[in-house]
Specification:
Strand order of the largest sheet: 1-2-3-4-5-6-7-8-9-10-11-12-13-14-15
Shape: globular
Structural class: alpha/beta
Helix content: 25-40%
Strand content: 15-25%
Length: 517
C-alpha cells in the first residue's frame, strides 16, 4: 500500500470515485493497489456490480474479499448470482449464507439452480425469506421449493424472473396436474407483490386452459416477458396488468415456416382456435377488454398470431427471420396492431412475393399509421434471376404514398453467390489423412447471377434521393446494400432532421442504425 493518508489530488474526490465506478473489475483490482482511497472506493465499485459464484474456489475468494477492510464491504454488495453451489464444503456454504445475512443493501439475487440449491441449503432459503431490501429476484429451475420461498419472502420485489425449465420436461409437466395449473398462475402465485411489481419474466410457465377470474391487479407492472408457455390465455394477464407497456412473447412455435403452408386456413386447428379464443375473451361484454397503453410488442409472427391481441401497439419488432410462409400471417397480425413503428427481417420473399411482398402489404389500411420502418432483407440463391432494383423501386413507390418519417433498409446480398462453400477442415482432413488424396482446392467462383449484375450497377444514392423527393414526410433514412461479392457496403442517407420517434425501436440501433440483435 503506497499511503494510508489522502494527499490532495488534482482531481476532486468525486471525480476519482467516478473513475472507480466506470472501471471494469480488473482495473478496479489494480486501482486498489495504488492507494488507500482506491482500496476502499474500487472495492465498492466491484461489489456494486454482479458477483457470480461458481463452486468452492469462487466462494472462498469472495468471502476473503468481503471480510477485508475491517468487514466494511458487506454493506456494498448489490448484486449476487449463485451459479452453482454444488460440492461446497459444509463450512464454506455456512459462511456464505452467514455473509449474505450481513448484506443490508443486496438488491439483486439470481439463483441458477433454484430448487436444487434451495433444497440442498435450507438456511439459504431462510436468509432470503428474511430479506426486506431485495428488489430483483431471478430463479432458474424453479419448483416446489421456490414456491415455498416466494410465500415466505418479506422483500417488496419490483422485478421477478422465474424459469421453470423444460428439459427434459418442465416442472409443470412433471410435477403438477392439469387441474392444478391455475394454482400456479403467475397472477395468483405472485399476488403478494401486486402493489410493487414492475417487471415479470415467465419462462416455461404452463398456465393451463381453465383459468378463473383473479381479483388481483398489478398497477405498476409495465414489462412482461412470456417464453415457452405454449398456449397462454391472454385475458388473465390483461385483467391483472392493465398498465402494461412492453410485451415480449415467444412460444415454441416461433417460426411460421415450421408449417408447410402458413395461409391462415391451413394452420393447425389448435392454433386458429386458440387465437379466436383469445380474441373473443377480449371482446366479450364481461371481458377485460384489451391493453390501452401497449407501446412495444416483440415476438415471432406465428407467436403474435397465436396471441390474438386486439389492441393497437406503438411498436412491433418481429425478431425471427421469416420467409414467404410467414407473410401469410403478417397482414393478419398487423391489421389489429396497426403499429406506428415496425421492425422486421426476412428473406427475399419480402421483396419478391407476388401477393404479399412489402410493396403489397404496405397498401393495406394498417399502414396508414406507420411512421417508421426498419427492414433487413437477406437475398438468397433463389433470388438469383430476380430484377431486385425494379422491386426496390416498387417498394419506394409504395413508401412514397405513406406519411413515414423514418426508414432503415438493409439489403444483404451475400447469399446470392451460388459458388459452393470451400471444403472445411474436417473435409480436408478426411481427404488428406484418411484417403491420402491431395488437399481439395477451393471451388472456382461461379459467374455473377443476373441479380448480382443488376445490383452491382444499382445506384444507392440516386435511389435514396428519388425516395426522399417523392416522400416529403421522410426526415431520417438510411439505405444500405451489402455486396454483391466484392462490392463492399454502399450506404446512402437522408438526414433532414434526426428524429427518434420511438426510443425502444432505436435501442439496438444507436451505434449502427442497421444492427439487429
Amino acid at each position: 500500500m503506497i499511503s494510508a493518508t489522502y494527499p490532495t489530488p488534482r482531481l476532486n474526490w468525486d471525480a476519482l470515485r467516478e473513475v472507480a465506478v466506470c472501471a471494469d473489475r480488473s482495473t478496479c483490482a489494480t486501482l486498489m493497489l495504488s492507494c488507500r482511497f482506491f482500496y476502499h472506493e474500487a472495492a465498492k465499485s466491484i461489489l456494486f456490480n454482479n458477483i457470480r459464484l461458481l463452486g468452492e474456489k469462487d466462494v472462498l475468494r469472495f468471502l476473503q474479499f468481503l471480510q477485508a477492510d475491517n468487514g466494511s464491504r458487506f454493506q456494498y454488495a448489490r448484486h449476487l448470482t449463485l451459479c452453482s453451489l454444488y460440492g461446497l464444503k459444509a463450512h464454506t456454504a455456512a459462511s456464505l449464507i452467514r455473509s449474505m445475512d450481513r448484506m443490508p443493501q443486496l438488491e439483486r439475487l439470481s439463483i441458477e439452480s433454484g430448487d436444487s440449491e434451495l433444497r440442498l441449503y435450507p438456511a439459504l432459503a431462510d436468509v432470503i425469506a428474511k430479506f426486506t431490501h431485495l428488489r430483483h429476484l431471478d430463479i432458474t429451475y424453479a419448483g416446489h421449493v421456490t414456491c415455498a420461498l416466494l410465500k415466505s419472502m418479506q422483500s417488496a420485489l419490483v422485478s421477478i424472473s422465474l424459469n421453470w425449465c423444460d428439459y427434459p420436461r418442465s416442472f409443470f409437466e412433471a410435477k403438477v396436474g392439469r387441474d392444478l395449473l391455475a394454482n400456479y398462475h403467475p397472477v395468483l402465485l405472485l399476488a403478494r407483490w401486486a402493489p410493487t411489481l414492475e417487471e415479470l419474466s415467465c419462462h416455461s410457465w404452463r398456465t393451463g386452459m381453465k383459468v378463473p377470474v383473479f381479483p388481483h391487479v398489478y398497477p405498476r407492472l409495465r414489462v412482461l416477458q412470456i417464453e415457452k408457455d405454449d398456449l397462454p390465455l391472454i385475458a388473465p394477464f390483461i385483467r391483472a396488468f392493465p398498465n402494461l407497456r412492453q410485451l415480449d412473447f415467444r412460444t415454441d412455435r416461433q417460426h411460421a415456416d415450421d408449417y408447410d403452408d402458413c395461409e391462415e386456413h391451413a394452420l393447425p386447428a389448435e392454433i386458429r382456435q386458440h387465437r379466436q379464443r383469445n380474441i373473443a375473451s377480449q371482446l366479450a361484454p364481461n371481458g377485460p377488454g384489451t391493453w390501452q397503453h401497449l407501446e412495444n410488442l416483440v415476438g415471432g409472427v406465428a407467436d403474435l398470431y397465436l396471441l390474438g391481441l386486439t389492441s393497437q401497439v406503438s411498436a412491433i419488432r418481429l425478431y425471427t427471420e421469416f420467409n414467404a410462409a410467414g407473410l401469410g400471417l403478417l397482414s393478419v397480425v398487423l391489421s389489429y396492431a396497426r403499429p406506428l413503428h415496425l421492425k422486421i427481417k426476412g428473406n427475399g420473399a419480402l421483396l419478391t412475393h407476388p401477393l404479399r411482398s412489402l410493396a403489397k402489404i404496405l397498401h393495406e389500411p394498417w399502414a396508414a399509421r406507420l411512421e417508421s420502418l426498419s427492414v433487413e432483407l437477406h437475398l438468397g440463391e433463389q433470388d438469383g434471376d430476380v430484377d431486385i432494383p425494379s422491386l426496390l423501386h416498387a417498394l419506394a413507390c409504395t413508401l412514397s404514398q405513406l406519411t413515414m418519417r423514418r426508414l432503415r433498409l438493409n439489403l444483404i446480398t451475400t447469399w446470392l453467390d451460388p459458388t459452393p462453400d470451400p471444403p472445411d477442415d474436417f473435409e480436408t482432413w478426411m481427404a488428406t489423412e484418411t484417403h491420402g488424396w491431395p488437399e481439395p482446392r477451393p471451388p472456382s467462383p461461379a459467374p455473377l447471377t443476373p441479380a448480382e449484375v443488376m445490383l452491382q450497377s444499382f445506384d444507392v444514392d440516386a435511389f435514396v434521393r428519388t425516395l426522399g423527393d417523392a416522400t416529403p414526410s421522410l426526415q431520417d433514412a438510411v439505405v444500405q446494400v451489402v455486396g454483391p461479392r466484392s462490392s463492399g457496403r454502399r450506404v446512402a442517407v437522408i438526414a433532414k432532421s434526426k428524429i427518434y420517434v420511438d426510443a425502444d425501436m432505436d435501442a439496438d440501433m444507436s451505434e449502427d442504425p442497421l444492427s439487429y440483435d
